Amino acid sequence: MVTVAHVQLSSCCGCLVSLTDTYEKLLDVLGAIDLVYSQTIADAREIPEADIILVEGSVCLDDHHAMEIAQDVRKKAKILVALGACAATGGITRFCRGGQMSKPIHSSFSPITEVVKCDLAIPGCPPSPEIIVGLITAAIEGDMEYLAPFSEFAKNNTEACGCDVIEKVVNKSLCMGCGCCAASCPTRAIEMVEGRPLILNEVCIKCGCCGFQCPRIELPKNVMVLE
Amino acid sequence: MDAFGNYKSVISARIADKAVLKKVQDGGIVTAAFVYGLENNLLDGAVVASVGEEFRAVPKVATTVEEILEAAGTKYTTCPNLSVLKQAIREYGCEKVGVVGTPCQIIATRKSLKYPVGFRHMNDKIALTVGIFCMENFPYNGMKTIVEEHCGVKMDDVAKLDIGKGKFWTYTKWGETKSIKLADTHPYEQIACHVCTDYTAELADISTGSVGSPDGWSTVFARTEKGEEFLNGMVESGYLETKPVNEGKFGLELLAKLANIKKSKNQKEIDHRKEIGLPVPY
Ligand SMILES: Cc1cc2nc3c(=O)[nH]c(=O)nc-3n(C[C@H](O)[C@H](O)[C@H](O)COP(=O)(O)OP(=O)(O)OC[C@H]3O[C@@H](n4cnc5c(N)ncnc54)[C@H](O)[C@@H]3O)c2cc1C
Ligand code: SF4
Fold it and tell me: For the Coenzyme F420 hydrogenase/dehydrogenase beta subunit N-terminal domain, which residue ranges apply (chain B) (predicted)?
């Protein structure tokens, strides 16, 4: 049985809610894995070694507990997954700047992908239940082809932003105006104007969705086969 | 080279309703599919390109037959259909959505189904994808320049636009027909179209276009089981008239020729961009 742990750092728990939002599929998933650690839904106090550790939330660099957990999960996981925007790209915690009670010194937050090497990262705020199940299933089955975009994302997209589709697509003469980026955005920070995305920067929460979904950045081969 | 991608069957067809046939682009396959879907409870909405002011293309979630009919006809400009995909499910509460799109939009739809990162609970609600053949598209002002400067027609007066027989045709609301050579429209093409190697919407459930069939008829591929079942249903319940597709010089042969031209030309552009260090979708 594949062992899975869910670890929460600086986050809202929405990613775990998203995992449980798979209704009947959750039972299939739970049937196929052994959930060895999850503070929200199970009793275990110590993070054990596990095949897959899903980390949600970013790491507060000013909190030594968080830093220790980040190091610890890297050692204990065979596959370390940055689950959701905060873990993968920083997300909303990119805007943290400290000065608030009761820990005004807690001012610096980085996605875990920037603190330790992560094997896979799933952007999204939250990532859809279907994509979490898809990733776990692929990891269990060893479907490396399916996992490739997540491994790529963990390596190269820690600083995601709505600007990604401008810089990597529009500016590179690749945008054909499908509107997929706009639909994927959870905050409606993308408006389509004259067939091109326009980023409302004050609204963008740097979740990484648009850049991940744009078919003109990455077009996995398995998408190109008719099923 | 594989010109068309995988498919189960190919036919020529047109919508049986003669009144509607007048309003559609070619054989009205897209319109017929969505009307059939809505009327037979196989769809409860469709993402389409409706017409805005001055013949702009505006993405829309259509939930009634009237709205489907209103969106018939080709707009030769980018229409971000997918931008309203999630809206169809969230705000309109659709559970069986049809999607029409150019090949790139169908590819984008497939990717969002395979990797639905920002698309919660969408997978099982896309009931049908209908792809339209596409050689290239134009930004709105590109299309406008062709129509206004080259054809001498105001956008407000446009009734229908069409590409065929080597020309770009403008039909006005007052019954006039103007055209220019397709070669003269090349400067206004969307350059991002030049890295696309899909002509016949190879990943759609059903793909359709004008090339390969006589005027007023469409060439139709059923590619997936779902697509074939849908198409058979349309034929059986009398929504479509069909005839065997012409294999010859003005039929599939011509279609294959155009598809291969697009593929090889744009593959060269992809290779060229790679060579000079520009990114291409990987
Ligand atoms: C840019 C472009 C280039 C094309 N090039 C070719 C070609 O080279 N060869 C060929 O055979 N056919 C081409 N077509 C397809 C052709 O023009 C017709 O759209 C197709 O045959 C469907 O006709 P119909 O009568 O079945 O559709 P209709 O029943 O008239 O319905 C057309 C449907 O297409 C949707 N639509 C219209 N414009 C757009 C758009 N810009 N983006 C997304 N959806 C849209 C409408 O919402 C409508 O639902 C092209 C279409 C476009 C948009
Ligand atoms: S998702 Fe579509 S509209 Fe958005 S940047 Fe990519 S190609 Fe352009």
Answer: 10-86
CA of B281 to the centre of ligand 2 (A): 12
Burial call A105-125: b when 16+ CB within 10 Å, e when fewer: ebeebbbbbbbbebbbbbbbb
Among B5, B79, B116, whose Cβ lies nearest the Cβ of A226? Answer: B5
For A173-224, what is each residue's pLDDT tens digit? Answer: 999 999 999 999 999 999 999 999 999 999 999 999 999 999 999 999 999 9
Residues in chain B: 282
Query: Given the DSSP bridges, would you call strands B177-181 and B167-172 parallel, antiparallel or unpaired?
Result: antiparallel
B40 and chain A in contact, CB less than 8 A: no
Q: Cite the beta strand spans of chain B per DSSP E.
A: 9-15, 45-51, 57-62, 97-101, 126-132, 158-164, 167-172, 177-181, 206-209, 218-222, 240-244
What are the chain B neighbours of A175 within 8 Å (beta carbons)?
A: 192
* B141-188, CATH topology level: Nuclear Transport Factor 2; Chain: A, (3.10.450)
What are the pLDDT digits (tens) for B136-181? 999 999 999 999 999 999 999 999 999 999 999 999 999 999 999 9
DSSP string, B45-98: EEEEEEE-GGG-EEEEEE-SHHHHHHT-S--SS---GGGGHHHHHHTS--SSEE
Question: What are the DSSP E strand ranges found in A24-150?
Answer: 33-38, 50-56, 59-60, 77-83, 109-110, 120-122
* Helices of type H across A21-128: 24-32, 64-76, 85-88, 112-115
- Contact, B205 vs B129, CB < 8 A? yes
Beta partners for B98?
A: B46, B128
Q: Please state, for a pLDDT cut of 90, what percent of chain B lies above it.
A: 99
Boundaries of every domain in chain B: 9-137+191-276, 141-188
Q: Whose CA is nearest to atom 16 of ligand 1?
A: B209
Q: Which of B67, B227, B274 is nearest to B131 (CA)?
A: B227
* Host H or E run for residue A219: none
Bridge partners, residue B151, by sequence: none
| B contact test, residue of A137, A168, A176 with most B CBs within 10 A | A176
Amino acid identity for residue A103 in this structure: K
